[in-house]
Amino acid sequence: MNLSSARQYFYQEIHQPDEHINLAKAALYIAQEEYPDLNPEEYLNALDTMASEVKERLPASRYPLRLIQSLNQYFYEDLKFSGNQSDYYNPCNSFLNDVIDHRLGIPITLALVYLEVAHRIDFPMVGIGMPGHFLIRPDIPDVEIFVDAFNRGEVMFAQDCQERLTQMFQQPVNLNPEFLAPVSNGQFLMRILTNLKYIYLKQQNLAKTLAAVERIVLLFPNAILEVRDRGLLYYKLGHYPQAADDLQTYLAKVPDAEDAPVIRRLLDELGKG
């Protein structure tokens, strides 16, 4: 496997038990493909510094809501972090170094900064992959409160989450329990990469779209739709042997897929039908 050094570091970080993956490191290795001179330690130190500064202002009573109040004051009042409403689909919003430097991000990357600092003050939090919007919540039994890092650390309850979904989708949405289930570290990283995939696809930057999909497949080798998409991108970029391998794998796994006739025609073109 001929991987860039950033890709190798990413691969090494994710190929260990999920609970041992360092989310901040892995996210910085994602960014390092965009910024080859990026020094991850510099940004890990920045998170450490933030945590040290928050510790100095923590209340004596470490109730979750009091801790969230302190974190919110620090992030949104002192450091001026905010959601990038005006340029939401800028890829920079998905790179942890840019988010730390510019204090701007999207729900998942602002959640990552918040979560990483919270961990460093012994206030563990987990990511919540709600459809269309990413939240975090304290990883404490029976504490059913959610934090919206994109909206200045707004504290939400399950009913608020349901209302937010109804508002986003402009129709009543049933709040299925899995909508508020914690995501694994791998799923957290996949969501960052999926955002980049669709941003670059919209920009018609196929090489960067491919780079995002390749890393998704490193995370989840059995994500067969991503294998298909990687094959289609290889085809578009003229990497025909790799395209044929992926498209054959896709058909072998889902021979009755709705798009199987299209894939077979491509394989015929490649002499692999």
Features:
two-stranded antiparallel sheet; 7% strand; mainly alpha; SirB1_N; TPR-like_helical_dom_sf; SirB1 family protein
Report what the structure shows.
With 273 residues, this protein is mainly α. The protein has 2 domains: 5-180, no CATH class; 222-273, no CATH class. It is built from 12 helices and 6 strands. The strands form 3 sheets. A two-stranded parallel ribbon has the order 1-2. The longest helix is centred in the last third of the chain and has 18 residues, at 185-202. The chain is globular. The two termini are 26 Å apart. The mean pLDDT is 95.
Q: How can the largest sheet be summarized? A: 2 strands, parallel
Helix fraction, binned, reads 55-70%
* CA-atom Rg in angstroms: 20 Å
Number of helices: 12
Order of helices and strands: HHHHEHEHEEEEHHHHHH
Averaged pLDDT = 95
Strand content: 5-15%
Structural shape: globular
Distance between the termini: 26 Å
List the domain count as a whole number. 2
Protein name: SirB1 family protein
Domain Protein SirB1 N-terminal: 42-193
Family: Belongs to the UPF0162 family.
Organism: Halotia branconii CENA392
